[in-house]
Amino acid sequence: MQSVGLVIAATGLAAEARIAEHSKGVIAVASGGDATRLASLIEGLIADGARGIISFGIAGGLRADLKSGTCVVGTSVVHGGRSYLADAAWTKRIAGCLPDAELGAIAGCQSVVANPAAKKLLFDETGAIAADMESHVAARIAADRQVPFAVLRVIADPAHQRLPPAAMHRLKPDGSPDIFAVIKSLRSEPSQLPDLIRAAIAARRAMIELFRCHRLLGPGLGFTDLG
Question: For 7-222, which CATH superfamily applies?
Fold first, then answer.
């Protein structure tokens, strides 16, 4: 029998981390948008014996046909001119559990890709179908530490959707929303409210789908220790 190893779920949001930790054998870390913090948390858990890393959460769509709520299984992560291949066996397991998921490269980004023009440019430059702020951190550490990694993301904002300022970088260090910062942004620019509502609806749709995915993947989010 294959055993479920301790898996690190690398997330940006506290809500994503809570979903991931519903799976047996998974410990989640939330970056709150801080790549340095995320790297430190992951490194500490690897030192404690974690056996795999999965980038888990919602993402921005780059390919034009991907709708909000679409599951994406990353086959690789591209960032800074480098490409990191995801573990083939783990990726195959995830895809097998989620037959409707789209497979493709994920772009790792230092900041949120907020507008359609920037999303199209990133797609044209990298061929990645989705983007997030955690996958490249997980991929780099996994390569350095020689542990398997995988990517499971759900599209929140599709390629055509603009994210308003109030939706970006409005997180506390633990990945929970900074409501005061959102309100302050809205007060300074009330016209962004319709875009913010659309973004919130898309994010909720993605989180619901992310929860469904975690249930289908089961213990370890599809990871089994082959060692």
Answer: Nucleoside phosphorylase domain (3.40.50.1580)
